[in-house]
Design goal:
Blueprint lengths: L1 E7 L5 H16 L4 E8 L6 E8 L2 H8 L2 H6 L1 H4 L8 E2 L18
Antiparallel strand pairs: 1-3, 1-4, 2-3
């Protein structure tokens, strides 16, 4: 699964945010199930930043978010993300995609 977190940060806060974003990425990268990730800044709008991470599955990502180190070093930065869906499934040819349906609890 892919997680895309986008952030809008005033330009004057850019360098400080860059350090925070790298610290958040490092905390996530240390968790089981992490496969890859990158940080970036938009080439046309320097106030727009992104953190993308790839995980073995959604459970690994959710468990990572509940770890102490991630809560301490990543969640404060992740809380600044734009309010939009961030988890994506891999949609390569031949893969089964998630079906949106009500799930039974029983």
């Amino acid at each position: 699964m892919i997680v895309v977190n986008r952030f809008r940060v005033p330009e004057v806060e850019g360098e400080g945010f860059r350090a925070d974003l790298h610290r958040a990425h490092e905390a996530l990268a240390a968790r089981p199930g992490y496969l890859a990730g990158t940080t970036g800044r938009n080439v046309d709008d320097p106030e727009l930043w992104v953190l993308t991470t790839t995980w073995e599955h959604v459970g690994a990502y959710r468990r990572a978010l509940s770890s102490y180190d991630v809560k301490l070093h990543a969640v404060p930065t992740l809380s600044r993300a734009l309010d939009e869906p961030s988890a994506y499934e891999i949609a390569d040819n031949g893969t089964d995609l998630n079906i949106r349906a009500t799930r039974s609890l029983g």
